[in-house]
Amino acid sequence: MKIAVVGATGLVGSVMLKVLQERGFADDEIIAAASFRSVGKHIQFADRELTVVSVDDAIAMRPDYAIFSAGAAASRQYAPLFAAAGTTVIDNSSAWRKDADKPLVVPEINIDAVGPDDRIIANPNCSTIQMVLALSGLHRRYGIKRLVISTYQSITGTGVKAVNQLREEEKWHAAKVNERGDGVPSQIDEMGEHSQAYPYQIFRNLFPHGGDFQDDGYTTEEQKLVNETRKILRDPDIAITATVARVPVVGGHSEAVNAELDKEFDIDEARRIIAETPGVVLYDDPSRNIYPMPIMSEGKDEVFVGRVRRDLSQPKTLNLWVVADNLRKGAATNAIEIMEELIKRRS
């Protein structure tokens, strides 16, 4: 097997390489591709060193699969070139998710959406993946009428620059405390604008801003939850509204989901359905303070669900809390699981 990782030097790309090693691809031919400024760099993979090549060179090597985490612009430019060379592309950007002729896949739910001739497959947004997986069994059993979603998204979803910003702010704060015994930075430019991924400090803060604001007041991150959920669950009539918040967390994304179902449900049956969903762990015992947190999801591939309870304000509605590592199941692992399913199908 010959597998290219496009964007191999980025935050998600590095996790993709780690997951490939963990899931039995250490002996396959792995091509690390990135932008021209990274060409020639060396990356450790399993027991060997990979030399980063250009994307054009990776195309010429005609890999069986190319897993992309290089941004939408690069995907639009290069994914069709890989596909024309016979490579199956699994793309982690937003470039192809809304295209009607491109499958958008969470393999536990809709791997059957990939046809034999599909050469570009979209990996959903991280916040979408964990939510639809948690809800997929409930949707099959009861149907979903409406979703109200609030997300608490890790800074890792923005990339290395955001992680570096939080680290710099933590160090800045510690230095100020040592210097004068108080203080959180009052102005972000005191730390240098060059290091900022966000318009405000993230340390000891959160803000309702993920993605870009649209004319309707919602952000692109919020709109992705609407569009992608409907497409993956194959139900364009689900009413969905979302608010995205960015929080000073590294381990993973958390979501509070209020789901109004089409049919009345039994809460014990609903909990059983969630617990039996492949890839989902029901972690829910409030009497013992057992509920999912991002710190426990970091480095894991499962989606954790807790705080499952009936909404007492209206019928046929329940609340749940969903947590997952956004770099793994929310990105790298889901993409590689898609590839694994296609390898099985084609072998």
Account of the protein in words:
It is a single chain. This protein has helices at 11-22, 55-60, 72-84, 107-110, 126-142, 160-180, 220-232, 267-275, 294-297, 328-346, and strands at 2-6, 29-34, 42-45, 48-51, 53-54, 65-68, 88-91, 120-122, 144-154, 239-247, 253-261, 280-282, 303-310, 317-324. The chain is of the alpha/beta class and 347 residues long. It has two domains: 2-123 and 331-346, Rossmann fold (3-Layer(aba) Sandwich); 128-158 and 204-327, Dihydrodipicolinate Reductase, domain 2 (2-Layer Sandwich), CATH 3.30.360. A six-stranded parallel beta sheet has the order 5-2-1-6-7-8, sandwiched between helices. Strands 10-9-11-14-13-12 form a six-stranded mixed beta sheet. Strand 6, helix 3 and strand 7 form a beta-alpha-beta unit. The longest helix has 21 residues, at 160-180. It is globular.
Give the helices and strands, then pairings.
Blueprint: E1 2-6, H1 11-22, E2 29-34, E3 42-45, E4 48-51, E5 53-54, H2 55-60, E6 65-68, H3 72-84, E7 88-91, H4 107-110, E8 120-122, H5 126-142, E9 144-154, H6 160-180, H7 220-232, E10 239-247, E11 253-261, H8 267-275, E12 280-282, H9 294-297, E13 303-310, E14 317-324, H10 328-346
Parallel strand pairs: 1-2, 1-6, 2-5, 6-7, 7-8, 9-10, 12-13
Antiparallel strand pairs: 3-4, 9-11, 11-14, 13-14
Helix/strand order, N-terminal first: EHEEEEHEHEHEHEHHEEHEHEEH
CATH topology grouping of the largest domain: Dihydrodipicolinate Reductase, domain 2
| Count of separate DSSP helical elements | 10
N- and C-termini, Cα separation? 11 Å
Indicate the radius of gyration in whole angstroms: 21 Å
User: What is the CATH architecture assignment of the largest domain?
Assistant: 2-Layer Sandwich
Largest sheet: 6 strands, parallel
What is the CATH superfamily classification of the largest domain?
A: Dihydrodipicolinate Reductase, domain 2
